């Protein structure tokens, strides 16, 4: 069996038509019919105005600028996340303040956030914005987060890079804050091979972000610029891939959720391995299937299990290393951190590609079961039927 990777692109076949149109029409730059159509179709899917950009990181950068983040500001940010969530804060000359996770969702702790904002308000040191991450395909608990921020008029940016297709109380990720950022990196639930999308319910903000993303070129024949801009627009070719991918987003969500359910059922009799919780308030896409390892009960540490699976041809990863543990952000203020540290120390992400075959997943399952001293599953069919 070939090496089983963590999360790989999964083409649908629809992409070729739009890419071929881009080549046929010679629209190969950062303008063109596919870019316009992808923004429109994505916006209709999510329920917001959409701006197609070169990466999820670019979308966060533009979103923070829209929220008014400036040099020397502070921005509250989830600590359990990928570094691309925090780096754009530095791009703007601001500084992140990290906030711990809650165990119930692994996302930003609303109660801790409320306490932190209350303490900052007493000293007139409120942050310019809050970045709430929707981790591994599950929305943060946005109602109490927005309520806490609303008391002090602090805007919220959603980092929805991992959460396309996720729902919070029936509402799509990307419509729950003042602005949101999505990623179409190759490992995401859909991909443009690299790219991102900024969403906002404010049409004027979307137009402003689109202007900044195209080098902030003023109207007119001359190349004139009165504001700083960026080369952040998505190419027409990449947007064509995105249009094809968007057609199968519901199927890709179903496939990832089915994979996660099969893992949960396959490990139901194995002590010391616990799935990431699924909040009752929304739809978790399970972009990645994540588990916590309890070494005394499981018999192996998380790192030992990763090494064993690697020898068996299975790629896995730890959950994100918290930002407050990164050398880059060692001097950053933080609120809490112990929960995120524990999730990082014990958390493992298992192969979750929507194209993962039953045979490949059975191999992963049986390697994990063998590590815990449990018999292999000989017949996966019952689990497949149950997940379906």
Please indicate the percent range of residues in DSSP E strands (runs of 2 or more).
Answer: 5-15%
CATH topology of the largest domain: Aspartate Aminotransferase, domain 2
N-to-C order of helices and strands: HHEHEHEHEHEEEEEHHHEEEHHEEHEHH
**Coarse structural class:** alpha/beta
Structure explained in plain terms:
The chain has 388 residues and is α/β, with parallel strands linked by helices. It folds into two domains: 15-246, Aspartate Aminotransferase, domain 2, CATH 3.40.640.10; 249-387, Alpha-Beta Complex (Aspartate Aminotransferase, domain 1), CATH 3.90.1150. Helices cover 39% and strands 14% of the residues. It contains 14 helices and 15 strands. An eight-stranded mixed β-sheet has the order 1-9-8-5-4-2-3-14, sandwiched between helices. Helix 1 packs antiparallel against helix 8 (236-246), helix 3 crosses helix 4 (83-91) and helix 5 runs parallel beside helix 6 (142-150). The longest helix has 18 residues, at 249-266. It is globular, with a radius of gyration of 21 Å. The two termini are 25 Å apart.
Characterize this entry briefly.
By secondary structure, the protein is an alpha/beta fold. 39% of the residues lie in helices and 14% in strands.
Keywords, separated by commas or semicolons:
globular, disordered C terminus, about 400 residues, four-stranded antiparallel β-sheet, Aspartate Aminotransferase, domain 1, 2 domains, alpha/beta, 14 helices, eight-stranded mixed β-sheet, Aspartate Aminotransferase, domain 2, 15 strands
Write the layout of secondary structure elements.
Blueprint: H1 15-25, H2 33-46, E1 49-53, H3 56-66, E2 74-78, H4 83-91, E3 95-99, H5 110-122, E4 129-133, H6 142-150, E5 156-159, E6 167-168, E7 171-172, E8 179-183, E9 196-200, H7 203-213, H8 236-246, H9 249-266, E10 273-275, E11 282-283, E12 289-293, H10 295-298, H11 302-311, E13 317-318, E14 334-335, H12 338-346, E15 347-350, H13 358-371, H14 381-387
């Amino acid at each position: 069996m070939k090496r089983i990777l963590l999360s790989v692109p999964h083409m649908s076949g629809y992409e070729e038509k739009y890419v071929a149109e881009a080549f046929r029409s010679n629209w190969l730059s950062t303008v063109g019919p596919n870019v316009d159509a992808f923004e429109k179709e994505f916006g209709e899917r999510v329920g917001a105005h959409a701006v197609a950009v070169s990466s999820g990181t670019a979308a966060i950068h533009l979103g923070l600028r829209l929220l008014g983040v400036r040099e020397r500001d502070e921005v509250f940010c989830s600590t359990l996340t990928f570094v691309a969530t925090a780096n754009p804060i530095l791009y703007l000359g601001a500084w992140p303040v990290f906030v711990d996770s809650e165990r119930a969702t692994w996302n930003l702790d609303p109660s801790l956030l409320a306490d932190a904002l209350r303490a900052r308000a007493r000293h007139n040191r409120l942050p310019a914005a809050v970045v709430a991450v929707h981790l591994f395909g599950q929305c943060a608990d946005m109602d109490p987060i927005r309520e806490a921020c609303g008391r002090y008029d602090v805007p919220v940016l959603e980092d929805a890079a991992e959460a396309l297709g996720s729902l919070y109380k029936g509402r799509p990720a990307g419509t729950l804050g003042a602005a949101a950022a999505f990623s179409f990196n190759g490992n995401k639930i859909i991909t443009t091979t690299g790219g991102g999308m900024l969403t906002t319910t404010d049409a004027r903000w979307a137009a402003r972000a689109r202007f900044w993303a195209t080098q902030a070129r003023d109207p007119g024949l001359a190349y004139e610029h009165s504001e700083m801009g960026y080369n952040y627009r998505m190419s027409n070719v990449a947007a064509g891939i995105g249009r094809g991918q968007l057609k199968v987003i519901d199927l890709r969500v179903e496939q990832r959720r089915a994979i996660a359910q099969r893992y949960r059922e396959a490990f139901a009799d194995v002590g010391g391995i616990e799935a990431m919780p699924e909040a009752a308030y929304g739809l978790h896409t399970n972009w990645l299937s994540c588990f916590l390892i309890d070494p005394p009960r499981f018999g192996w540490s998380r790192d030992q299990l990763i090494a064993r699976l690697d020898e068996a041809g299975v790629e896995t990863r730890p959950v994100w290393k918290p930002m407050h543990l990164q050398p880059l952000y060692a001097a950053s203020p933080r609120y809490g951190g112990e929960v995120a540290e524990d999730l990082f120390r014990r958390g493992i992400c298992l192969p979750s590609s929507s194209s993962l075959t039953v045979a490949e997943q059975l191999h992963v399952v049986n390697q994990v079961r063998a590590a815990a001293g449990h018999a292999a599953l000989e017949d996966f069919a019952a689990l497949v039927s149950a997940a379906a």
